[in-house]
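WARN no homologs supplied; continuing
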Amino acid sequence: MTTLSVMTWNLENLFQPGGSSGPKTEADFTQKLETLATAISKLDPDVLAVQEVGQPAAFADLIQQLNGRYAHTQLSSQPDARGIRVGFLSKLPIEESEDIVAFSPSGLPSVPSIDRDGNLDESTRLSRGALRIRVTPQPGLAVHLLTAHLKSKLLSFPSRTGQARFTTRDETERARIAGIALLQRTAEAVTLRIKATEILERNPDAALILLGDLNDVTDAATTQILQGAPGSEIGTGGFNRPDRGDATRLFNLAGLIAEERRFSRVFKGNNELIDHIFASAALLPGQPRRLPMVDSQIDVIGAMPSIDDDPNERRGKAGSDHAPITARFEL
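OK structure emitted
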């Protein structure tokens, strides 16, 4: 039986040395590359979605460190203001790709944003472009993979100096920025959901996997938007009862991760699952549905670090502050 294994991993600031986000020394960068490549090689997914890739040259360095394991790669051309973007590494040929940047005009075409002076502005695009690719793991089955890195829950406050502020004593400012961040993440989730619907309606014989750093937990409204029609989630009575919603429904695979491992980040000592893999019904065939093997690889590079509101505290650290999430499907 043919299998397809996929993985999503936020690589945490994969920048070459120098700049405000990269490691300070070449030795730190080399150690990071070696740590990431060792983990990827151990887990060995067929297709890997990555987030927080800095310069394309840093991505090329990681590919080289993997010694030809992934012959096919695609990197988003739409980073955020800090220069981080999403990408794919694949053992399977990438047959087509698509950058997804603008908010869907049929969803939320614009939401409020804020400029560096603290004035209200308008956002009409994802903070970091999403990316779609298509692969064919077995004849007759095209699989579309869509990765994204949604707006962070970590708040960044306006600064005229260009240096990000991660704290404020102004509670009105805090509430305002938190609300704007939530609106941005919501519009991004709506855009992805509409894109998923378009793909599945246009390609009824294809499968779809949506995976990435969605920056909120399983029960969050923005995460649940991505599922589509409710009532058939994994673990519910409706899961093994096919219905008309299956044509465009996405199933969040989080419930298949062992409960004690069901997290991908530790924030202020609290475990959170904010990295997710969703799959369409074509990847869960049969009656009852055939389930993939899903895990959060929380120990692949040692104990997970606990982070706080200031991401600069981990500058130059090896590995990542996120755990990879893996899924293995029998097709």
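The mean pLDDT is 94.
OK
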